[in-house]
Design a protein that fits this description.
Number of strands: 0
Order of helices and strands: HHHHHHHHHHHHHH
Largest sheet: none
Protein name: DUF222 domain-containing protein
Shape: globular
Structural class: mainly alpha
Number of helices: 14
Length: 303
Amino acid sequence: MVDAVARLLRRGLPVTLAAVDPVLLELRGVLARAVDPGDEASRIAALDGTLRGLLARFPDARYAAAARALFGLPPATPGMNLTARRALAAERAGHEVHHFRKRVEPRLIATLTAELLADADRFTHAPLIAPRLAPVSARQPVLADPFAWEVAEQEEQLSLLWSAIYAARAELLAVERLISLRAERTDIVRAAVTAAWRWAGARAEAISYTTAFAPDLTIDELVALAGWTPPLTPGQTSRLTEAAAGGVAREQFVAHLHGETVLDDTWTTGLLAALQSTEPTSPEQPGAGGSSTAVPADPDQNG
């Protein structure tokens, strides 16, 4: 696997048929993301997207820019050959080129390989994989038959489940992006509240789906597909889920939780922890002594 990833360096990204080792195209994470797993071009596109995502979240912050440059992503520019990319990567890493190539580059390749394998493992043990959709050119009516109704209802509920999970994932990503951009605190808090609403809605959909069609699936594992969330007690989890049940609007969700601390103290504070650790505190900010409810309530709510 390490040799297969190292082989990609010669051309860099995007992945091409000439540079890719077939072993990479058989990874579970690649197959799961491919629009058509049986099509080589589709798997190559999926591998390319997977690598870009892993490099964007490279676990070693010191060498993240160097790893991206090495594989042809910004700060590298299109058309740079390996020699130029290696020199740029060494510069970003703060090393002399020869030392970088001999000592650092192998570690970066090994780290990316480990991330690829971990990604594949996550898909291997995923409780459910999102269904692939194909274009439909003609109406597909449901026959007036109990079996057909049940199949249609299951697909309907499955679509609602994945819609909710992806909506929650989008909002959790938005929070992380805003924190990384060091956006205005009120904007981050608003996004965090929206993420709580979407996450709780996804959990409600997971409960509905598993109860009706898949009792063997674990609700927490399904919702975890949306992304990382602050640790919650069973009671807090239940309270958020209850507030979002029935497909309520965001405003209703916030209103249901008005006066409670789970949304501010636990959820929002947990998501803003990365921001709090690098900014000064004041009496109006979390972490500044005083009440544990210092995190501002949803900016869209009065009172």
